Amino acid sequence: MVLDFKSMECSVVVKGLSQREVKADVMILPIEFTQTHLNVLYQNLDQDSKKNMNFLKRMVFKGEDISL
Length: 68
Hints:
- Helix content is about 40%, strand content about 0%.
- By secondary structure, the chain is mainly alpha-helical.
- The protein is elongated and about 70 Å long.
- The model has no long low-confidence stretch (mean pLDDT about 75).
């Protein structure tokens, strides 16, 4: 009779999920520069980099915090 009782016993195992917020000090954003011609890519690279830098500055980033 003890065997029958044990076989009817149910158990549940619960594993918890712990979360906490941490302040990030590094953020990596992959930015691609695409162009069909290599010469045009090199000609526009500096101008496009400045556009991306200005965009990031308009958001929440400081100029000294950004490196390309």
